[in-house]
User: Which sequence fits this backbone?
């Protein structure tokens, strides 16, 4: 039988971790024929809570779960890892400026990048979920020079799924009918959920909804959905975020269907005027275990302005972490 795939999850004792770990253990991350070994990373104060989660994982008696190990040292947690899910991050506390937030996260993602560089498996794939996800991924990547750039990604799949759900509701069709929706830019309120190329049942979505709905309803609803969830639940999105992380990795490994794409923040090669090296969301396809930016799309003026605005924010974040010496 196949050797287990090592999956490292950081922030394992947090709320996304709690939703994510059971789905990984049940085989939804990699498939129903792939055994997994979990490596949980937490800060020392949260190791006990992670141990509690590990007890519950044991109690699930998951046929595909080959074991769970808990660490408070990134070097150990990423040793031999094939899939690294970087969920734990420093949240913004009251009165914290954006620069302080980036700096605090640099203290987390720099050593994690170094540990991935030093000890991860040759085929490692990294997904950063912890916010600010794109720039945290940029920091980790810049400290892992021996890992190919295309192994570092950040999550905009939740935004993509939110966009699918809103469109399905508006058009009165199942999400399975929707194709070629895309999230561009930063995983933040500046993100651009685009339907410029999107289709439903072979028709153009842009012809079926009016521009005012797109601008005043759809785009802000998707971009501000995280805040709406906090307002309703009193807690930030967790199960939906875990679900999107599962989707992101499953697609990365198993591919996108012909005639469709998905969204992920990947290292820019300069496509669509996005500066090379930035980790920005694009429409992507996956094949043979690689995400690739969809090429050759015509970008209309509305999309151009929205993409540029979100990319400008990413450039600003990159410049800030550069000045702080974090990349
Ligand atoms: P929680 O605060 O519940 O859990 C975070 C966990 O990370 C805590 O247990 C904490 O001890 C741990 N942690 C902190 N520093 C660590 C370190 N250096 N090494 C290992 N573990 C560490 O947050 P949760 O709700 O689980 O959210 C986790 C992250 O996901 C947050 O940054 C959040 O903003 C981000 N999100 C990103 C989303 C996306 O679409 N990209 C959507 C959901 C979510 O908001």
Assistant:
């Amino acid at each position: 039988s196949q050797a287990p795939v090592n999956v490292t999850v950081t922030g394992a004792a947090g709320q996304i971790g709690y939703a994510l770990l059971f789905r990984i253990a049940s085989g939804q991350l990699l498939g129903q024929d792939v055994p997994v070994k979990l490596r949980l990373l937490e800060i020392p104060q949260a190791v006990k809570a992670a141990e509690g989660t590990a007890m519950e994982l044991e109690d699930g008696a998951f046929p595909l779960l080959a074991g769970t190990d808990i660490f408070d040292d990134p070097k150990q947690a990423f040793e031999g890892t094939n899939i690294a899910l970087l969920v734990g991050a420093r949240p913004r506390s009251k009165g914290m400026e954006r620069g302080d937030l980036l700096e605090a996260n640099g203290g987390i993602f720099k050593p994690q990048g170094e540990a991935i560089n030093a000890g991860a498996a040759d085929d490692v794939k990294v997904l950063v979920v912890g916010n600010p996800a794109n720039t945290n991924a940029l920091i980790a990547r810049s400290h892992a020079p021996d890992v190919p750039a295309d192994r570092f990604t950040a999550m905009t799949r939740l935004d993509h799924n939110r966009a699918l759900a809103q469109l399905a509701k508006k058009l009165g069709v199942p999400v399975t009918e929707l194709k070629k929706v895309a999230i561009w830019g930063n995983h933040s309120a500046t993100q651009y959920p685009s339907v410029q190329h999107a289709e439903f049942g072979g028709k153009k979505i842009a012809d079926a909804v009016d521009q005012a709905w797109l601008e005043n309803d759809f785009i802000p609803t998707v971009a501000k959905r995280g805040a709406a969830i906090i307002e309703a639940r009193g807690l930030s999105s967790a199960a939906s975020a875990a679900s999107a992380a599962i989707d992101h990795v499953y697609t990365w490994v198993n591919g996108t269907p012909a005639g469709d794409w998905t969204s992920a923040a990947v290292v820019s090669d300069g496509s669509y005027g996005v500066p090379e090296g930035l980790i920005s969301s694009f429409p992507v396809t996956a094949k043979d275990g690689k995400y690739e930016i969809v090429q050759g799309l015509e970008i209309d003026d509305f999309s151009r302005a929205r993409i540029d605005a979100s990319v400008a924010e990413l450039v600003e974040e990159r410049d800030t972490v550069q000045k702080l010496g974090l990349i």
Observations:
- The chain has a mean pLDDT of 97.
